[in-house]
Amino acid sequence: KPVIGVLALQGDVREHAAMLEKAGARALPVRRERELSEVDGLVLPGGESTTMSRLLETFELLDPLRARLAEGLPAFGSCAGMILLARQALDGRQDQHQLDALDVVVRRNAFGRQVDSFEEDLDVEGLEGGPLHAVFIRAPWVEKAGAGVRVLARVPRTEAAGAAADRIVAIRQGAVLATAFHPELTGDERVHRLFVGIVQET
Ligand code: GLN
């Protein structure tokens, strides 16, 4: 079984760990450099990217994590995790760190500050078995994606989507996967299976 870490500084760590186990991996909470060195892949959960960025520094994980990502560590970021993995975040704080593992510019809280959460069924490239029910919570979207980034899902053109229609909300670049939504919250482990597969291939 691949050992997949869940960055456990803040956010919905337990939900990701449970989904990883369901998807056939062994989940390991990661708070220290030693733990980071033991994993074959890493999930960066949802939560608050500014807080997580600060905690990465406090726990002295920022440089080790950057180094492992540069070596090709497979990673999956959901929501705040996607923001951290991006090369640039709009509407972020000036002192927020970017891990620069995805050649994308994301916009934080992109669906509007009033819109706390939003749900939509998405067609996700590479997922069999029909649309995926996606839950967005103060979510970002991808505003610009480089040529090496594969778009896996966009918001469909529905009435509920409004101005968010067509926005990019799931991507993959090499062994790095990211979703603006929270696949750990809906009991559908297909995205986690996709990530476990990426880890196994790598
Ligand atoms: N709005 C949060 C941020 O900017 C992300 C929200 C989430 O992860 N659910 O970091």
TrEMBL record:
<dbReference type="InterPro" id="IPR021196">
    <property type="entry name" value="PdxT/SNO_CS"/>
</dbReference>
<comment type="function">
    <text>Catalyzes the hydrolysis of glutamine to glutamate and ammonia as part of the biosynthesis of pyridoxal 5'-phosphate. The resulting ammonia molecule is channeled to the active site of PdxS.</text>
</comment>
<dbReference type="GO" id="GO:1903600">
    <property type="term" value="C:glutaminase complex"/>
</dbReference>
<feature type="active site" description="Nucleophile">
    <location>
        <position position="79"/>
    </location>
</feature>
<dbReference type="InterPro" id="IPR029062">
    <property type="entry name" value="Class_I_gatase-like"/>
</dbReference>
<feature type="active site" description="Charge relay system">
    <location>
        <position position="182"/>
    </location>
</feature>
<keyword id="KW-0378">Hydrolase</keyword>
<feature type="active site" description="Charge relay system">
    <location>
        <position position="184"/>
    </location>
</feature>
<dbReference type="GO" id="GO:0005829">
    <property type="term" value="C:cytosol"/>
</dbReference>
<dbReference type="InterPro" id="IPR002161">
    <property type="entry name" value="PdxT/SNO"/>
</dbReference>
<comment type="similarity">
    <text>Belongs to the glutaminase PdxT/SNO family.</text>
</comment>
<keyword id="KW-0315">Glutamine amidotransferase</keyword>
<comment type="subunit">
    <text>In the presence of PdxS, forms a dodecamer of heterodimers. Only shows activity in the heterodimer.</text>
</comment>
<dbReference type="GO" id="GO:0008614">
    <property type="term" value="P:pyridoxine metabolic process"/>
</dbReference>
<feature type="binding site">
    <location>
        <begin position="137"/>
        <end position="138"/>
    </location>
    <ligand>
        <name>L-glutamine</name>
    </ligand>
</feature>
<protein>
    <recommendedName>
        <fullName>Pyridoxal 5'-phosphate synthase subunit PdxT</fullName>
        <ecNumber>4.3.3.6</ecNumber>
        <ecNumber>3.5.1.2</ecNumber>
    </recommendedName>
</protein>
<comment type="pathway">
    <text>Cofactor biosynthesis; pyridoxal 5'-phosphate biosynthesis.</text>
</comment>
<dbReference type="GO" id="GO:0006543">
    <property type="term" value="P:L-glutamine catabolic process"/>
</dbReference>
<dbReference type="GO" id="GO:0036381">
    <property type="term" value="F:pyridoxal 5'-phosphate synthase (glutamine hydrolysing) activity"/>
</dbReference>
<keyword id="KW-0456">Lyase</keyword>
<feature type="binding site">
    <location>
        <begin position="47"/>
        <end position="49"/>
    </location>
    <ligand>
        <name>L-glutamine</name>
    </ligand>
</feature>
<dbReference type="GO" id="GO:0042823">
    <property type="term" value="P:pyridoxal phosphate biosynthetic process"/>
</dbReference>
<dbReference type="Pfam" id="PF01174">
    <property type="entry name" value="SNO"/>
</dbReference>
<keyword id="KW-0663">Pyridoxal phosphate</keyword>
<feature type="binding site">
    <location>
        <position position="108"/>
    </location>
    <ligand>
        <name>L-glutamine</name>
    </ligand>
</feature>
<dbReference type="GO" id="GO:0004359">
    <property type="term" value="F:glutaminase activity"/>
</dbReference>
